[in-house]
Amino acid sequence: MDATADTPGASTINRRNIAIWLLACSGMVAAMVIIGGITRLTESGLSMTEWRPLVGWIPPLSEVEWQRVFDRYRQTSEYRIQFPGMDLEGFKTIFWWEYIHRVWGRLIGLVFGLPLLWFILRRRIDKPLIPHLVALFALGALQGVIGWWMVVSGFVDRDDVSQYRLTVHLGMAIVILGYLLWVALGLLSRSDREAAPAGPKTLSRIVVGVAFATILSGGMVAGINAGFIHNTWPLMDGGLLPDDFAALSPVWLNAFENHATVQFLHRMLAYVTAILAAMLWLRARSAGLAARSRLAANLLAAAVILQLILGISTLLLVVPITLAVLHQAGAVAVFALALWYSWELSAPVPARA
Predict the structure, then answer these.
(1) Could you give the CA distance from residue 69 to residue 98 in angstroms, rounded to a whole number?
(2) Which of 24, 179, 186, 273 is the most buried (most CB within 10 A)?
């Protein structure tokens, strides 16, 4: 659905300004996903044991306060299980990543919320668009609650957060990103989309869905550290399926908690994404689509190839942080480009006279 359809009262300048604002928010959300990946990879996510939405901007400002927050962290199961010898200086290192992650989230709220209030008070937003923007604000607030819900899962008898809650948190970030991009694209170029045939249009939507599913499966891989085993490619330690593929009972549990199965499913979804992106690229070349649609297809194909290379390299080198972060950034790029291509083809086909 085009969030800006039938809004003749909005001026071109207003539409462009709102679109630029939403694109800036999209960039901040994309950066948030990457910062979240760094936080996860550096085992920093449980270092802040308090959720203080109003005063959480302020980091520890004295040695006494640093010692207080460190003492709270030392009461967590992560400290006891994984970092029993950590000193205060080591704690500060992981604290700052989680602090940046949380403050960046609050900044996104301000960058979205304050201009939204200004645009509404100045009557610069057409009424049909307001519910979409309010919904985005609500989703952002819900994401903050989900983030804390995720964090508290790691404080009791485990050394990591729940992979299920981590995946929900990641998935919500991607939903917000996609929603922002879709509304912004509608504001930038409402009337010049291509009336594409049903085949490419449907296929483009499938690619968006599969790319999203692949990101979710990547969240599960990260949540249980499944990338640290079976570090071979194209086979998994010499076979298509590793020996421990279905080691858990009941069988369905393997898809969520068996390291080998979770990694295998992520690999398969990545292959499906690549195949579908290749099909889109071929259809874009053969169906005589407009130049902008072909550009989107070309960029998507290039991003998928790069993402495959990053994924394989990350696996073979046993998840070095830099490559793993680039791989997560690549996933965001693939999803965003797939969404753009789908939007370009989403105009309705004119009815025959």
Answers:
(1) 13
(2) 273
**Whole-angstrom Cα distance, residue 182 to residue 175?**
11
Specify whether 245 is located in the same domain as 351.
Answer: yes
Task: Give dist(CA 139, CA 19) in Å, integer.
Answer: 19
Burial of 157 (C-beta count, 10 Å sphere; 0-12/13-18/19+): exposed
Final residue before a domain boundary, out of 190, 209, 235 = 190
Mapped onto helix, strand or coil, the DSSP state of residue 239 is strand
> What is the percentage of the chain residues whose pLDDT exceeds 90?
71
H helices of 59-197, where? 63-73, 77-82, 88-121, 130-152, 163-188
Whether residue 263 is found in the same domain as residue 127:
no
Q: Under a CB-based contact definition with an 8 Å cutoff, are residues 264 and 245 in contact? A: yes
Span 191-231, pLDDT tens digits: 556 667 777 889 999 999 999 999 999 999 999 999 999 99
User: How far is 188 from 17, CA to CA, in rounded Å?
Assistant: 9
Give me the number of domains the chain comprises.
Answer: 2
- Assess contact for 218 and 230: CB atoms under 8 A: no
Q: Give the N- to C-terminal CA distance of the chain in Å, as an integer.
A: 24
Distance CA 220, CA 15 (A): 38
Two tokens, residue 55: 């005063």
